């Protein structure tokens, strides 16, 4: 989301959803409505009865995702080995709400969260899912743009922001090492043809049942381009053998892996540097930063990687006190 963009999330509640459903989709009027947990940033989500869900964009920048998902999800579903959201109806602005909105079939399960009970199995299933996604015919798929937060596009889009945050966090983050990771990511350009990417392969968008990956949700940032952005989950959710299973399952070449590190670093940096951000999310993102730097360090210099790894637990503890957002971070 662009800085300063108004979000309607505080105004989107069950009462509004009920009014919209009664006015526009009376076949579902009377079904119980309750807020889903957890909530995302781009949309507010509500359960509608036991089999449906309602998603409402929280800001103007996310409205295009509604139309995109209704167009592409039915096309992708037949090509993928796991269930994805099935659009059931699209609503129009009304009842004081200014955007299009959607009703989807609900996919039962719980969001993934670290530590996973079966990390290798989840990584293997995710690799199979992403492989199938990438092999789906990209013809007619949307190229990277604002609808995908430029995921799937070149990392240069976020070059200035990333370097600004590295400088602002110097002392909490090894600026020299972070710059090395970022430079390596920029140098590893995507030279192949565009393929489908999900755009937000995060723990909250991976649905588990009985500790196994059962569905993948939230395709709002999907498109066709460079799939490296989908590999950030290797650091945000997976580690050790599971990370290697994901990498080998996708046959990710060194350049793709380097760009994936860059995407993971960018997202984690802006989360740590976020004004008025959640300290716990910042702490989790700081762990991602240290993990990325340590892995890159082992690749570039094994001794560096070992030294950085030993410092991780202590530095993560600092963030709860340090994340009080000094003024110099405002540009991040």
Question: Can you give a write-up of this model?
Answer:
Helix 3 runs parallel beside helix 7. The protein has helices at 14-24, 63-77, 119-135, 159-168, 175-187, 233-236, 240-250, 254-272, 279-300, 302-322; strands at 33-35, 43-48, 52-57, 87-91, 101-105, 110-111, 195-197, 206-209, 212-216, 223-225. It is built from 10 helices and 10 strands. It has 332 residues and is an alpha+beta fold. The strands form 3 sheets. A 5-stranded antiparallel beta sheet has the order 1-2-3-5-4, sandwiched between helices. It folds into 2 domains: 9-107, Phosphorylase Kinase, domain 1 (2-Layer Sandwich); 111-329, Aminoglycoside 3'-phosphotransferase, Chain: A, domain 2 (Alpha-Beta Complex). The protein is globular, with a radius of gyration of 20 Å.
List low-pLDDT spans. 1-5, 302-307, 309-313, 323-331
The portion of residues forming beta strands comes to: 5-15%
The third-level CATH topology of the largest domain is Aminoglycoside 3'-phosphotransferase, Chain: A, domain 2
Question: CATH-wise, what's the superfamily of the largest domain?
Answer: Aminoglycoside phosphotransferase (APH), C-terminal lobe
How widely separated are the two ends? 13 Å
Structural class: alpha+beta
CATH class of the largest domain: Alpha Beta
Could you describe the largest sheet, including whether it forms a barrel?
Answer: 5 strands, antiparallel
Q: Describe the global form.
A: globular
Domains (count): 2
* Strand count: 10
Strand order of the largest sheet: 1-2-3-5-4
Order of helices and strands: HEEEHEEEHHHEEEEHHHHH
How large, in whole angstroms, is the Cα Rg? 20 Å
What CATH architecture of the largest domain would you give?
Alpha-Beta Complex
**Helix percent band:** 40-55%
Compute the number of helices: 10
């Amino acid at each position: 989301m662009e800085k300063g963009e108004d979000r309607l999330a505080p105004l989107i509640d069950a009462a509004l959803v009920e009014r919209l459903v009664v006015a526009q989709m009376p076949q579902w009027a009377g079904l119980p409505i309750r807020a889903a947990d957890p909530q995302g940033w781009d949309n507010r989500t509500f359960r509608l009865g036991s089999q449906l869900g309602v998603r409402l964009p929280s800001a103007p920048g996310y409205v295009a995702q509604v139309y995109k998902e209704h167009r592409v999800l039915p096309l992708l579903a037949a090509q993928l080995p796991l269930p994805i959201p099935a659009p059931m109806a699209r609503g129009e602005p009304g009842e004081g709400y200014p955007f299009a909105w959607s009703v989807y079939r609900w996919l039962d399960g719980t969001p993934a969260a670290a530590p996973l009970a079966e990390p290798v199995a989840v990584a293997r299933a995710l690799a199979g899912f992403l492989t199938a996604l990438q092999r789906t015919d990209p013809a007619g798929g949307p190229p990277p743009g604002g609808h995908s937060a430029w995921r799937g596009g070149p990392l240069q889009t976020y070059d200035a922001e990333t370097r600004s945050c590295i400088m602002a966090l110097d002392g909490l983050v090894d600026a020299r090492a972070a710059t090395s990771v970022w430079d390596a990511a920029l140098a590893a350009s995507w030279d192949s043809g565009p393929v489908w990417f999900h755009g937000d392969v995060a723990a909250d968008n991976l649905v588990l049942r009985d500790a196994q990956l059962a569905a993948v949700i939230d395709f709002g940032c999907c498109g066709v381009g460079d799939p490296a952005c989908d590999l950030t989950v290797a650091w945000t959710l997976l580690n050790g053998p599971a990370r290697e299973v994901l990498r080998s399952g996708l046959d990710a070449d060194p350049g793709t892996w380097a760009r994936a590190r860059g995407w993971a670093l960018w997202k984690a940096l802006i989360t740590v540097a976020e004004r008025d951000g959640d300290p716990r999310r910042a702490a989790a993102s700081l762990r991602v930063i240290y993990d990325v730097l340590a892995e890159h360090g082992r690749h570039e210099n094994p001794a560096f990687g070992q030294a950085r790894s030993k410092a991780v637990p202590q530095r993560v503890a600092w963030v709860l006190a340090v994340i009080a957002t000094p003024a110099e971070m405002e540009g991040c």
